Amino acid sequence: MTVELIEPTYSVDAPASGVTFPEGEQWRIEIPSVEGPEAVRVVLDEAARLGVPVHRISQGSGIQMLLDDEITEMLELCADKHIELCLFVGPRGSFDIGAAVLAQAGGALKGALRGSRQLAHAIADVERASDLGIRSILVADLGLLVLLNQRRDAGDLPADFIFKYSVLAAPTNPASAAVLAQLGADTLNVPSDLTIRQIAEIREATPAVIDFYVEAPDDIGGFVRFHDIPDLVRVAAPIYLKFGLRNSPPLYPSGAHLSGLVLSSARERVRRARIGVDHLRAAGLLA
Question: Which parts of 116-157 are beta strand (E)?
Fold first, then answer.
């Protein structure tokens, strides 16, 4: 019996995005889970060594887990390199006393805020960060997003404050993505298990920036999609390509007891980003 070989193809039946970042770029690079000033230094040093253009550094343990001096130092380090620093709101379901988040179907509650008291704690967290100069935060609760957007519209938060909606509450369809953008989300972290076509549908529904874990941590799926980078850029621009780590222990909340892991994983995330840069270059998306 003769088996007819099928020529493999890279083509995906999905429309190209016609949107870019304000400066005209289609993609930017984000290094996530950078926990504290020393980790920021590691990322900056490794990015310089490997030739990785880093546009955003994000932290996951939360604003409440950082000292004022640590936030200021992280902000200064990033500002010196013209890098956006994004901090996660501290309070969240997975840190709280409620047990539902531990239930078999409780995963969607990991980033949720329980009751008005926890909403108030989260708003206080954001206001503290804003007073220290932070202009980008990671939000995982819909009600908090609405309240913060109201404060931004009223002038109580700076007009250039960026609300980044977390993968913990990620939109999985174009309608959800459009609603989140209408409610104030400037950048949307979509799940890494969506197909290229499904991501294109989200792009067609909203011009909001898309964040995407090219490599996702185990607790959000552990997907590894480096070869999809060219299509991700083509259909989802403007997009932040995020490089997490599969097969790595969780870091949140971080601290000195985890310093070795924090620094080694920060270094490896930049190396993973360099792999992504090589894919961008091979596809003609980087000079």
Answer: 136-139
101 within 8 A of 109, measured Cβ to Cβ: yes
> Tokens in use for 156?
């109580």
Task: Return the structure tokens found at 278.
Answer: 């090589």
Annotated domain spans of the chain: 27-93+104-282
What is the distance between the alpha carbons of residues 213 and 188, in angstroms, rounded to a whole number?
11
Peptide linkage before 253 cis (omega within 30 of 0): yes
Contact present, 249 and 276 (Cβ < 8 Å): no
Helix (H) or strand (E) holding 164: strand 162-165
**Fold of the domain built from segment(s) 27-93+104-282:** TIM Barrel (3.20.20)
Half-sphere exposure of residue 280: CA atoms within 13 angstroms, side-chain side = 23
Q: Is the pTM of this model over 0.90?
A: yes
Q: Helix, strand, or coil here: 56?
A: strand
Whether omega before 238 lies within 30 degrees of 0, making that bond cis, reads: yes
99-133 pLDDT, tens digit per residue, is 667 666 566 777 788 889 999 999 999 999 999 99
Structure-block tokens of residue 91: 């309070």
Other beta carbons less than 10 A from residue 54's beta carbon: 23
**Which among 54, 137, 48, 43 has a CA at the least distance from the CA of 92?**
137
Mean pLDDT of the chain: 93
Is residue 23 predicted with pLDDT exceeding 70?
yes
How far is 266 from 38, CA to CA, in rounded Å? 10
Cα within 13 Å of Cα(184), Cβ side: 25
